[in-house]
Amino acid sequence: MKLARNCLRSNHFSALVLLLLYIVPLCSCIYQDEVGKINWHKRLIGKAKSVIPDATRHDIYYCSTEKNILASVNSTTGNIEWRKFFQNDKILFTKNIGNNLFTISGHNSQNFQLWNSKTGKLIWEASNNKPIGKYADAFIEKDRKNIVATTATDVFRFDLSTGELKWKTSLTNPTLSLGKVIVEKDHVYAIGDLSKPKTILLTNQLKLSDGTLIKSKEIAENQSLDSLNLAILHNHDSNSFIIWRDIDNIVWFIHKLGIDNPDFVLFHAKLFHIELTPDDMIGSVLFSINIENLAPKIGFLYKSDSQGKMIVADLTDKNGNPHFEKSFEFNSNDPKFGRNRISISDDGYLSSLSMSKNNKFKYSVFDLSKKGKIVLNGQSILNDPEHYGYLESIYKIGSKESPKLFIQTVDGLACGIKSSSFSEKSVELSTSKPLWCRDEVLSSTTDQTFLDLNLATTSSDKPLFDENSNLKSNGLIYNSIFNYINRLYTHCNEFISFINQFISPRNDKLADSSHQISEVFGFGKLSIFVSRYGRITALDASNGNNIWSIQLNNLLKEASSTTLPSSLYLRTFKVFATKPVSNLNNPPTIVVAGRNRDKNTVIVTINGLTGQIIDEQTADLKYRATKVLETNIIDSQTEQKILLIVRKEVIANKESKDNSETKNQDKSKKGNAKNEKAKKNDDKSNENKIDNSKINEKLIVEVWPRTKSAIAAVSKFNDKLYIVMGDKKGSTELKGYKLDGFSEVTDRELKVHASVPAREVWNMDFGVDEMQVIGTSYPSTDMRVSSIGRVLDSRKVLYKYLNPNTMIVLAGKTGQETGLRSLIIDRVSGRVLKAVDHESAIVNDLANREPLVTMQDNWAAYYFWSQRSSNRSLNNEGDNKKESLGEPHGDYKLVSLEMFESNNADEQLTKENFSSYTKIDPFTYIETFILKNSVLSMGIASSRNGITTQGLVLGNKGSPLSIIPHLQINPRRDRQQIGADNLAGQKSDYLADYEPVILESRENLLSYDLDLVGNSVIKTSATRLESTIVVLSYGIDVFCSKASPSGKFDVLSTQFSKVNLIATMSVLFIAGALSFPFVRRKVTKEIWK
């Protein structure tokens, strides 16, 4: 007892307790089982282009989307029941047939498929090995046993239950594009566009029994099947008619199918029983309403007195003559009321959508079987409408007893709204949340970037410090104590938030949901997405929560007119993270580039934490920029990275100023001179020099932000700025430009230029070899290199060729099936550092077999489909070596190449001041590997400081996202091909023997068994944990995970025992407390001696 009292009385007991509390948070570090797992996955389908309600299951609807997905969606919850991705096969036609869905799709082939609507399983499929047409259509025969389908120039008849082909008829006209088919008694009518000097409709009459062509007739000149002035009316029990109106004409023409003459001519007054002015008639729109078991109807839209109006009329055949009787009419105060805001369901209901400012909308549903009786009529508004685009379309789904409406904005937000049962009573305006919302805007992403955050500065609720903050203290212990107190505080808040989730859970499905940024150590990032519809979305990279979302078209002043714009004001295409977080008073910024209705480029600067537009850094450039480039130069005033904006200006030829006689006399002479110069340039193609006098357009470059400090910062790099043009897919010419100085001294005065011209310094013409650019890749502008060489086991070093100006280009032959060339090019000098030809690489099917390329540091990798070949040759062409590779047997090829200064160990050729004009040809190791699956996307994963081994991330088709460590595809694994003489006998850096087939281990599968759809782009970003890299895949689905190619060397393993740690610490604490009185007594005795 005395001993215990001495311990409690000790002044040091409280210090030991504090020490224990100080050490306990160590147990809350990130462990191995917390890193590398699936973080988040957004399952998307894309913006719907057609919506079909289920006839029997009223809580289900089906849709085909712009992303070629057929999906079944629960109309009550918005959850996806099933989905089918058609890859690059475009879905042209979808129809609900009982409990099945019939689709026509294709790209290089025509595919006819019947699906089980409940399970999404394929019942039968028929294919025709011909390219799909512009249109497609199908018609079910009255007995519902057979179906007739058409696309391109072909007409088919299938058994509906088995898919057996009854007959096929191919029409011989190559310029015909069929898109409408009608079965009428014993005949089939196939209608399509016929391309002549002017488009004309061609009707073809066939026998239903065997498909024999009876006759064809050309009608409706200057019309096409997608014309807004054309309607085709039909059903099983009446004659079919085609109605059209010529452009700038007020007369309607009517053709009865199967009858050569006469064609009928009617005016609006007789057609719709209304009198209209010529202007109203010329601006009118016509559409067909063909519902099974109902008489065919025609819809007529026009504007009068600033109102949108609609008339629906029934078609009857009286003694062979068409007769129209007005069924009902509808008026809308929306001046933009048009065809896209009207939908017709297969069960005989017409839905209309009228919009007003701030996304308020009115909806009406008409029963077509009851002369347009209004069965649903109401008004509503979306929550936070400024976050989304204007409402574009509406569809009626659900049943009569529980009707629902499907509405969709122009940028892909889809919502389900529950309404009261069918009635004629109007509903007052109400502000209510939809049943559910699916935001499909991420499926239309045009660009993405990561915004790195210092999480300690993103919240004002706690002290501004964390593990990586620079505390104003010289004491290491002081900093450590504060850091761990902050961590303990954070964990307490996380525990409280965890409890609050059970008390008041949030519905993440609602469109207006927002979240706080997750504060997980090392992973403070926002993933910024830009869609082509003007929406910017910021997601937390740790968990996928929506931090903020804005619609630029609603916020920019140019779009804030009293009426909605007739078209999208801004289409965004590029985003840059120009400033990371520094402190709350100086927030991070992102810059978005887009084009407005005038095709001018608009630059918008946004607060990265809140999504607010910074007006003083937002402007319409008043011209169309050709390219927007990011630099690492910092503007001291805004603390942002400076962007270079490139535009073209056409220069008039001097010859245009001469008189016509002199011009004609000189044309032949100058033409001959040009031909001679062209020949000389062809002979000197390796030098890549061009004659500047022949340029008839020039490039002008300006800086963004438009501040004096930005121009001054760029001026420090005069004569050192270069840009490359023509690096887009399909380009036949690659050009390098050097920027003139942004400042110059004239008459002892410093003059500063806001914009400068760019002079062409080299030109690479792929058209000479009948090739075009397929893909390009550059090293990152923020490239960090931890080691300048590869250390061999002999302790010698192979020095990397670290040229920040390199780029890799893939070029394919045009008009041929195979032929791919890869080139490593210096962007400053235009020198070709390495060229490799792959004669067996497939290049004529870029939609399905597109070659891919990526590059980082001195390593590059590219992928292609290949025919089987086994030849290999090496040819010398001038100063450059062009290597022709015949790959091992297989279809999916991955080429890995790595550049070094020399193949001799310990030989370093570059000087301290690197120059692209110093002629040093790197020694390139290159090797081909075989993959098990085709690849849709690829990217290189590199860590923050370049210490972790790099990895190649592959988005595989039909298999999980995976990462291949660099060691597995190291091109130096094969010692028998190149460099064997100089490095013979040196077993370098413990490389394994070359294995041509890449086998992916399970631990390298990032997405495991998740069903990822459309992963066409892969982006990576380093974290503050050197071992870990964030990997993001998007295209349709969005998936984010973390990868550790070198293992998780800076996190605790799963085998680490926290219980043993706590037990050990407890024993040591008790032992220290118990031994303290004895030690103190001994010290006291020593003093008394």
UniProtKB/TrEMBL annotation:
Residues that span the membrane, as ranges: 1061-1079
GO biological process: protein folding in endoplasmic reticulum
Signal peptide: 1-29
Record-linked SUPFAM superfamilies: Quinoprotein alcohol dehydrogenase-like
Keyword Membrane listed: yes
Subcellular location: Endoplasmic reticulum membrane
InterPro entries, per database record: Beta-prop_EMC1_1st, EMC1, EMC1_C, Quinoprotein_ADH-like_sf, WD40/YVTN_repeat-like_dom_sf
Pfam families cross-referenced by the UniProt entry: Beta-prop_EMC1_N (PF25293), EMC1_C (PF07774)
GO cellular component labels: EMC complex
Domain of life of the source: Eukaryota
Keywords on record: Endoplasmic reticulum, Glycoprotein, Membrane, Signal, Transmembrane, Transmembrane helix
Domain ER membrane protein complex subunit 1 C-terminal, chain residue ranges per copy: 857-1088
Topology versus the membrane: Single-pass type I membrane protein
Annotated stretches, region: Disordered: 656-690
Residue span(s) of domain EMC1 first beta-propeller: 30-223
Family the UniProt entry places it in: Belongs to the EMC1 family.
Quaternary organization: Component of the ER membrane protein complex (EMC).
Annotated protein name in UniProt: ER membrane protein complex subunit 1
The organism of origin for this protein: Smittium culicis
